[in-house]
Specification:
The protein is of the alpha+beta class. It is 44% helix and 28% strand. The chain contains four helices and five strands; from the N terminus they run βαββαββαα. A hairpin with a 2-residue loop joins β2 and β3. The protein starts with a strand and ends with a helix.
Length: 147
Amino acid sequence: MGNMIKVYRSKARPGLRDADIDALLQSSRRNNRAVGIGGMLLFGRGCFVQLIEGAGPAVERTYRRILSDPRHIDAMLLYDGSGEPRRFPGWSMGFARLECFNHLPCVESFLQHVEEADAEGFGADAALAMLLEFRRAQAQLEAALAS
């Protein structure tokens, strides 16, 4: 089985703290490096959007583990693709808080859907576009810092 990509969204369990998210990121980065997968996690207004990618079996195992994680609820798979190139090569797990980027149209749209309790209106295409926008923004930042 080749490269696999999964994108899901979920809601943070009530009472989730910043320290919980920090712990989640530390363990995700460590575990992902160990099995050769990676991706991007976005968090805003109590919702997660995550892309995980890499070798199919490792992505499947990781996704099953994510589904049983008590730090979030109502997980919904938005995208499940295979045989595609990695979108976040070299990233064990990128992270961004969406409220810091609500000037981006894709983030504004997502946060508006969350506020209106219309998460179904924000599907696979919009989620992938938002995740890739964060990758582009990070690449631009790295290029600016290197010059």
